[in-house]
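Worked example 3. Consider a protein that binds zinc ion.
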Amino acid sequence: MGWLLRLARSIAGVAAVENGDRWRRGFSVRHDWPDGTHILVGFRLTRPAAERRRRGTEAYWRTAPMRPRCSVVPVSFRDWELHGQRSDCRAPDCPIAERPPAEPVRTTR
Ligand SMILES: [Zn+2]
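Given these inputs, the predicted complex is written out as structure tokens:
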């Protein structure tokens, strides 16, 4: 049954990361907040799945007075997991988008 679960997860684009596969490259949605901090949310194995997550997140924040700038960044599952333990991260060497988002980004300025 394990393979069926993995197949279902991979179709859904949800991370199904086995122990031996923790350095596998995937994608995450990066939220850059106006105060200069950022977080990485929603690990996905494929860029299209991560882009779907980004669009959903942007829709969620659209009406908020303060909203994050969202981008899809490449990251390994292990790095993504470690990053989740940081708070108020401002490190300049964290993963950034390889290309600008397809849709124009609105800022609050
Ligand atoms: Zn960071």
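Take a moment to read the result before moving on. The longest strand covers residues 25-32. Helices lie at 2-12, 47-61, 77-83.
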